[in-house]
Design a protein that fits this description.
With about 550 residues, the protein is α+β, with helices and mostly antiparallel strands. It has five domains: about 1-155, no CATH class; about 165-175 and about 325-470, 3-Layer(aba) Sandwich (Molybdenum Cofactor Biosythetic Enzyme, Chain A); about 175-195 and about 295-325, Molybdopterin biosynthesis moea protein, domain 2 (Alpha-Beta Complex); about 205-285, Molybdopterin biosynthesis moeA protein, domain 3, CATH 2.170.190; about 475-540, Beta-clip. It has helices at about 15, 35, 50-60, 60-70, 70-85, 160-170, 305-315, 355-365, 380-385, 405-415, 450-470, 515-520, and strands at about 160, 175-180, 190, 195, 205, 210-215, 220, 245, 260, 265, 270-275, 285, 295-300, 320-325, 330-335, 340, 350, 365-375, 390-395, 415-420, 425, 430-435, 440-445, 475-480, 490-500, 505, 525, 535-540. The strands form eight sheets. Strands 1, 21, 24, 25, 26, 27 and 28 form a seven-stranded mixed β-sheet that branches. A six-stranded mixed β-sheet has the order 18-15-19-23-22-20, with helices on both faces. α3 packs across α4 (about 60-70), α4 packs across α5 and α9 (about 380-385) crosses α10. The longest helix has 20 residues, at about 450-470. It is elongated, with a radius of gyration of 34 Å. The relative contact order is 0.12. Catalyzes the insertion of molybdate into adenylated molybdopterin with the concomitant release of AMP. Its EC number is 2.10.1.1. It catalyses: adenylyl-molybdopterin + molybdate = Mo-molybdopterin + AMP + H(+). InterPro entries: MoaB/Mog-like_dom_sf, MoaB/Mog_dom, MoeA-like, MoeA_C_domain_IV, MoeA_C_domain_IV_sf, MoeA_linker/N, MoeA_linker/N_sf.
């Protein structure tokens, strides 16, 4: 199910198809050394068990290939690249038994060249012989995401990270529109401009508690007269020298020239009112139409419906809003090893993505119709995808090429169009984007939690933004408090938190399987290939719940 299963796709897959092994805090390891003939040489690294296994299967030929190639990665290319073309590995043919001859140019081989018992199948090849653990779409030795053409990579190119985001944003069309009651429109996008249905305010009103007065003072209040409260109809007109008590928001009576605040008035026993502070004409009266006139455009189409927008719409006379339909998303959690509750045990782990993705998708404006746990069941996955009516199906895990990674084979079976098949980003490079039908899409997330979040922000967020009609956020860059190592060819996404001085601090615990750094983060920093120096600005992908907190 998860990206870790790339590790069985071939000896070099651990270094090229996986994110590098993490240090104790999730910092990148140096997995490529053993595959490149560097410090982790094949003869001294723990990977020497691979050499022993291949020598057992292929005999002297692997030793000769390794010595000719100068490194294990080249040794694999020589051994499997040449032998695989004829369907032979180390002298074994299609049937898995000893073949009559070796590869072209090496002449006959006798049984002593092979240390594998007759009838035993060779482990993994690029030709017609395949280990039963690997499907026909298995990348084979030396494959992986990242830089096409780099040593140890498959011929299938991955998509550069910026290109993948842009492609995901163009892959869909804006959904249809509909009327939603104000209480149901929050988080959706205005499909048409918000136009005032009335003047705001719709009548002259008092801005303060006090007295409505007419002309210069002093003013006389009528005996036994009642004050004017908010919500009451039009009051009796005032004449010069008269006043009447008034509450905030109440309709100002005709003839009133100002409102005298209660704290600025002195009322004598004879019910004569004197001003104790300077009073100007029109003071503390909100005139009709001060905020807008009927027919004025208050907001343009495409704006997000926030709580403030709901308040403005209600004040302007709306009971419902025409908004773009919220994208419907279904989440399919794959993997037999995942537990829904309790402590990890018996080789099984807790499902971290199921509880996390639903709320995250809601923050992105989606309507999550269901979160279903399917395990590693190819038929269940096929049925779920064939029957789903969601605009976007999100799968977790199963995007690699291991024995139970069923996403790609199922997409082929459905006749889906693969738009993005791997992205040059760490973590998360096995992510994918497919078009199931003209109006339905699938985003396949890797199984590791931080890698899945990388896929969510790389492919799902731009797609959902387009479906919902949301505008793309303006790019945001900020300097980093320290240098961040980069992958030689791929973009890295690293959790960061805002600090004082307008800088962002990279966080520890940023390995592909870790969430500790992400839980404390405000954003993910986009680290280009080769890394970023201390003080250099980096693009930030803000997390939806992390508002701009300013310096801390």
């Amino acid at each position: 199910m998860s990206a870790e299963r790339h590790a069985v796709a071939g000896p070099s897959a651990a270094s090229e198809s996986l994110d590098a092994p993490d240090g104790p805090d999730g910092s990148p390891g140096d997995a490529d050394d053993s595959a490149s003939g560097g410090p982790g040489d094949a003869r001294t690294s723990p990977s020497s068990a691979v050499d022993d296994a291949l020598a057992l299967v292929a005999g002297d030929r692997y030793e000769r290939a390794l010595s000719r190639g100068g490194s294990r990665a080249r040794g694999f290319d020589v051994l499997f690249g040449e032998a695989g073309a004829s369907g032979e590995v180390g002298g074994f043919g299609e049937a898995g038994g000893p073949s009559a001859s070796g590869p072209a140019g090496e002449g006959p081989r006798d049984a002593r060249d092979s240390r594998t018992a007759p009838g035993r199948q060779a482990p993994f090849v690029r030709g017609s012989v395949r280990h039963p653990l690997f499907r026909d779409d298995s990348p084979g030795p030396g494959s992986g995401g990242g830089n096409p053409g780099a040593p140890g990579h498959s011929s299938r190119p991955t998509t550069a990270w910026p290109d993948a985001r842009a492609l995901a944003g163009r892959a869909a069309r804006v959904l249809g529109t509909g009327e939603r009651a104000l209480g149901e429109a929050l988080g959706q996008v205005l499909a048409v401009p918000l136009v005032a249905l009335t003047d705001l305010p719709s009548f002259d009103s008092s801005a303060m508690d006090g007295w409505a007065v007419s002309g210069p003072g002093p003013w006389r209040l009528p005996r036994g007269g009642q004050g004017i409260l908010a919500g009451e109809g039009e009051a009796v007109a005032l004449h010069d020298g008269q006043a009447v008590a008034i509450a905030t928001g109440a309709r100002v009576p005709p003839g009133a020239t100002a409102v005298l605040r209660r704290e600025h008035g002195d009322l004598t026993d004879e019910r004569v009112l004197h001003a104790t502070a300077r009073l100007t004409h029109g003071q503390d009266i909100r005139p009709r139409g001060q905020e807008c006139r009927r027919g004025d455009q208050l907001l343009a189409a495409g704006g997000l419906v926030t709580p403030a927008v709901l308040g403005l719409a209600a004040a302007a006379g709306y009971d419902s809003l025409r908004v773009t339909r919220r994208p419907r998303v279904e989440v399919l959690v794959l993997g037999d090893e995942l537990l829904r509750e309790g402590l990890p045990s018996g080789g099984r782990i807790r499902d971290a993505l199921g509880p996390m993705l639903g709320p995250w998708l809601a923050e992105l404006g989606a309507e999550v119709s269901a979160t279903r746990r399917l395990g590693d069941d190819a038929e269940a996955l096929y049925a779920a995808l064939a029957e789903s009516g969601a605009d976007l199906v999100l799968t977790t895990g199963g995007t690699a090429a291991g024995p139970v990674d069923h996403v790609r084979p199922t997409l082929r079976r459905l006749g889906a169009e693969l738009l993005v098949d791997g992205v040059s980003v760490r973590p998360g490079h096995p992510m994918l984007l497919a078009r199931l039908t003209p109006d339905r899409h699938l985003v396949g997330l890797p199984g590791n939690p931080l890698a899945a979040v990388a896929g969510l922000l790389t492919l799902a967020e731009p797609l959902l933004r387009t479906l919902a009609g949301r505008p793309a956020p303006a790019p945001y860059r900020t300097p980093l408090t320290e240098a961040v190592d980069g992958h030689p060819a791929d973009t890295r996404l690293v959790p960061v938190v805002r600090r004082g001085g307008g800088r962002a601090q990279p966080l520890r615990f940023h390995g592909p399987a870790m969430l500790r750094g992400l839980a404390a983060a405000d954003a993910l920093a986009v680290i280009p290939p080769g890394g970023t120096d201390r003080g250099s600005p980096a693009e930030l992908l803000a997390l939806p719940w992390a508002a701009d907190k300013g310096d801390r």
